[in-house]
Amino acid sequence: MDTFVYKRDTQENSNCVRWPKPPSKTPAPSTGGVKTPHRYRPGIVALCVIKRYQKTPKLLIRKLPFQCLVWEIAQDFKTDLGFQRAAIGALQEASEAYLVGLFEDTSLCVIHAKHVTIMPKDIQLACRIRGERA
């Protein structure tokens, strides 16, 4: 049987316009090209870091710099003060708990002000609402 081509099936008689295909989002890998690294959307990595730090029970401020800070502050009151290791640990626990609470209150102030970035005025407002002098 002979193959018969209808006139409407040929390209030159077609009424439709054929647009060129848009380039694909993932380009075909070339032989010498370097594949671009995967990028996360803005904010995703920050949320993952926050979740990771919330899961860990360890302290975030390093011990030696905190100990030096405590000694420096104590020098103003008395020069020959010594501290037990447990006392430094208790001070560090308390100071980190205070800072976490302060930043929680500050983030509420930031949300209320309808902006994203924590600014010094937000921390000052949180301290004033808490009734602290700063």
Automatic annotation (TrEMBL):
InterPro entries: H2A/H2B/H3, Histone-fold, Histone_H3/CENP-A. It comes from the Eukaryota. Residues 46-129 form the Core Histone H2A/H2B/H3 domain. Keywords: Chromosome, DNA-binding, Methylation, Nucleosome core, Nucleus. Gene3D superfamilies: Histone, subunit A. One of its GO terms (molecular function) is DNA binding. It is found in: Chromosome; Nucleus. Pfam families: Histone. GO terms for cellular component: nucleosome; nucleus. CDD domains: HFD_H3. Belongs to the histone H3 family. This is Core Histone H2A/H2B/H3 domain-containing protein. It comes from Sus scrofa.
